[in-house]
Write a structure and sequence with these properties.
It comes from Halopelagius fulvigenes. With 135 residues, the chain is an alpha/beta fold. The protein has one domain: 3-Layer(aba) Sandwich (Rossmann fold), CATH 3.40.50. It is built from five helices and five strands; from the N terminus they run E-H-E-H-E-H-E-H-E-H. The two termini are 21 Å apart.
């Protein structure tokens, strides 16, 4: 899918939140909606479908049915866009970073997460994302 829409020059950043726990996903979306345009996905497949080059930051659950967070990340890397990605996990993130085949996530958030942790992580991710192009 290389026909992704170009981002309109604006200051608003877009965040994609993907977790199979709908209530949790919706809570994260509410937390982020004051500062960002938020897209939600309730499965890995929905996350891949919702992603395009206008997304600045992605928050992915590690364990989702169908496609895991790692599998979604691999698919997103092959698509247009430069979004930074945080992985939500119930596992110690230090264990996930070990090994040569560990995906290079930009942030790791350990569940249960607090609102301030999510907001700070997404702010860092959005700041690291390239600015909107003015083409």
């Amino acid at each position: 899918m290389n026909d992704s829409p170009e981002r309109a020059p604006t200051d608003e950043r877009t965040v994609l939140v993907a977790d199979d726990e709908a209530a949790f996903t919706d809570s994260l979306a509410v937390w982020l909606s004051d500062e960002y345009a938020v897209r939600t996905a309730y499965s890995g497949r929905e996350a891949v479908e919702a992603y395009d080059s206008t997304v600045d930051a992605v928050v992915l659950d590690r364990r989702m049915p169908g496609l895991s967070g790692e599998e979604v990340f691999e698919r997103l890397r092959d698509r247009p866009g430069d979004a930074r990605v945080a992985l939500l996990t119930a596992t110690d993130p230090h264990r996930l970073r070990e090994g040569d085949d560990a995906p290079p996530f930009d942030e790791y958030l350990t569940k249960p997460v607090r609102k301030d942790e999510v907001l700070a992580a997404v702010e860092r991710l959005a700041e690291e994302s390239p600015p909107p192009s003015a083409e």
